[in-house]
Amino acid sequence: MASLEEIREGRLAKLQILKDKGINPYPAKVPRDFPIDFLKKNFEEHIKADNEVSVAGRVMALRGQGAILFAVLFDGTDKVQAIIKKDTLSEDDFKLFTETVDIGDFISVTGKAMLSKTGEQSIDTKVWTMAGKSLLPLPEKWHGLTDLDERFRKRYLDFLMNDELRDLMVKKSRFWDATREFMKNNGFLEVETPTLETTTGGAEATPFKTHHNDYDLDVYLRISIGELWQKRLMAGGFPKTFEIGRAYRNEGTSPDHAQEFTNMEFYWSFADYNDGMKLVREMYIEIAQSVFGTTKFTSRGHTFDLGEAWPEVDYTEEVKKQTGIDLNSATDTEIMDKLKELNVKFDGENRERLTDTLWKYCRKNISGPAFLVNHPALVAPLAKKNLGQETVQRFQPLIAGLEVGNGYSELNDPIDQKERFDTQRKLIEGGDTEAMMPDDEFVEMLEYGMPPTCGFGFGERLFAILADKPLRELQTFPLMRPRE
Fold first, then answer.
1. Which of 327, 453, 319, 449 is nearest to 383 (CA)?
2. Which of 5, 86, 379, 422: disulfide with 67, CB 3.0–4.6 Å?
3. What's the half-sphere exposure (Cβ side, CA atoms, 13 Å) at 427?
4. Nearest to 411 by CA among 402, 421, 425
C-alpha cells in the first residue's frame, strides 16, 4: 500500500499534467446549471427534453476500466452518477480524465440525463472540467475516520464521509430556526446583548478572561445570554425579549461539556415561573415535532414523551427520597459523608456546592419530562423567593436524567438582590471560582424598578438529548489542543 506522501506525489504529478496542457486545476467557475438535488427531482423532465445539463461535485467513487468509467459526484445536496465513455468524449478528453482524475477531486460534467442499464439516474458525459484537484486521498469509504481525535481535527472529512452527522448539523440549524420562530410567534423581540462584560452575570461558571486595550481593562466573555442585560430591557419598557447566541465557560472538556456553545434566553415582563413552565413545555413540544417529527424519544438509557404531562419534582423532597438527606436540617458534614458513601466526588466544602452536587447525583434517575421546582435559595441567587420560605420560584425541565433549561420568577427586590450578591462575594473570596460575580450597577437598575419578570434559558444540551448524541459530537468544530 502506498504511503500518504507517495499518494500526494502521484497527485502532484497529475496536477502538473493539467498545467502542462494549459488547464487551470483550480478555476474560479465551472459549468453548473443547478444543484444535483434539483436535477434528480426533475430528472424525467430532463430526459424528455433531451437537452444537455451541467452539474458539478466531488468525485466520491470511481470505477470501471477500459472504454467506460463511472464517477459518483456529490455537491452537498445529493449524488449523481456521471458516465464517462471513450466513444462519447473526445479521445484527448477521455485520456486526460483517466490520467488526472482521482476520488476526492471536484469536477464539472456536461451531458444528457439518462438511466443506466441498472436504472440509475446518470449523466451521459460529453464534456468534463476539473474544478479542483485534490492532493490527499479521502478516508476509506466503509471505515471513514475511526479515531475520535482525528475526526474532530479533520471535521470536514467527518462531515463528508458521515451522512448521519451531516444530517444532524442540518437538524441543529432547524432546531434554532424552530426556537426563533416559536419565540417570535409568541410576541418576543429578538435582541443582541454584550458578549464582553466587566462582570459575568446570569450563571455560575468560571469565565474566560481577556483584556480591553483601549480601556486598559480586564473583561470577561459572557457565561449567559445577556441575563442581566435583558432584565435592564425589562426595566426599559420592553415587554418580551429573547436572544440566541454564544456563551463561553472556562470549564472542563467532556463528551457533554464544551467551553463554547449556543444558548437561548427569554425574558417576559408581568409573568412568573408558572407562566414560564407553560410556555416552555409548549416550546419544547413544538421544537421536537418540527425538527424530529415526534415527541417520543429514547436517549441515554431513558425513554420519555414530551407530549405527556410534566409533573413537578420538589428539589428537597426528591433529594430526601433518594438519599435520605433532609437539606433543611442536615449539616455540611452529613452531606459530605453521604456523598462519600455514594462515591460521588465533590469540589469545595461550601454549602451551595455540596447541595448542588447531591442533587446532581439524584437527577440522573429521573427520565422526565418534569419540572424541578422549589430549589433552596442558596443555589439560585437571581430567583424570587417563595413567600415566607427559603426556597425560590425557579424551574428546570428534567429530561433523560439532566436539567435542560433554567428559569425563574426573576428577583426584582434590590435589597434582597444585594444581600444575595454579598453572599456570592463571600464565596468568591473563599476561593469559589464558579460563584456569581456581584453587579452593583444591576442592583442600581433594580432600585429604579423592574417589573415582575419570568426569565428562562436553554441550550444545545436539549438538542443533544433529543438526538441521543454527546454534546461535543454535535459541535461543528470542537476546540482541540494544537498538535505539538
1. 453
2. 86
3. 25
4. 421
pTM: 0.90
Cβ–Cβ under 8 Å, residues 143 and 118: no
**Minimal CA–CA distance to 446: which of 382, 367, 403, 394?**
382
Query: 440-448 and 414-429 helices cross at what angle (nearest 10)?
Result: 170
Could you tell me where the beta strands, DSSP code E, fall in 66-195? 68-74, 79-85, 106-115, 121-132, 189-190
Closest CA to 391 of 311, 313, 279, 278: 313
* pLDDT tens sequence across 424-444: 888 888 887 777 778 889 999
Each residue's pLDDT tens digit, 318-362: 999 999 999 999 999 999 999 999 999 887 678 888 999 999 999
279: its cell numbers = 410556555
- Grid coordinates of 60: 466520491
pLDDT digits (tens, 9 = 90+) for 213-266: 999 999 999 999 999 999 999 999 999 999 999 999 998 888 888 899 999 999
Quickly count: other Cβ atoms within 10 Å of residue 85's Cβ.
16
Q: Are 267 and 454 in contact (CB under 8 A)?
A: yes
Looking at the chain, how many residues does it have?
484
pLDDT for 379: 84
Backbone dihedral angles phi then psi of residue 481, each to the nearest 5 degrees: -70, 130
**Residue that the C-alpha cell 429530561 belongs to:** 399
Domains of the chain: 4-138 (2.40.50.140), 159-310+368-474 (3.30.930.10)
When comparing pLDDT for 183 and 478, which is higher?
A: 183
Query: How far apart are alpha carbons 188 and 181 in whole angstroms?
Result: 10
Q: How far is CA 47 from the centre of its chain?
A: 41
DSSP 385-399: BPTTSSEEEEEEEEE
- Show the cell assigned to 300: 441515554
Lowest mean pLDDT among 7-21, 340-354, 460-474: 340-354
